[in-house]
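As agreed, record copied across for absentees:
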Amino acid sequence: MRLASVLTAALFAFPATADEVWTSMMGDIVYAAEENGAAIFTFTNLDAYPARLVIPGLAGNYSNRSTHEAFWLGGGSGTCPAFMAIAGDDYSTTDWGRAVIAFDKPAFPTSFTVTIGWCFEEPRESFRGETTAK
């Protein structure tokens, strides 16, 4: 029975989220957490404040990545007309917007391009996340 548990664990092993780190012009982008089916990446935003990129449906997906709709939340003094928060998180902000993340290849490890917008605007500012994994 114990061997079956070990084999089952091995079959369902995925890369640890902390192993996914990318470099960008603003510093590291880290796959930091998974919440309610969403992957959460931390990064430094274009305005130099800490931010989180929330990608619904990406949690646990290491082999079938493509282009995904997302949103970001920042730590700056935002100007959006409403507050945004991650469910279960005490942090809320008016510094947020829509985003699109496009992975270069479907499987980990791969680089990507993130395009962000502010508030409800169409995403139009882009930056690259280059994989550091070999």
Observations:
- Residues 16-131 form one domain.
- Residues 1-16 have pLDDT under 50 and may be disordered.
- The radius of gyration is 16 Å.
- The chain has one domain: 16-131.
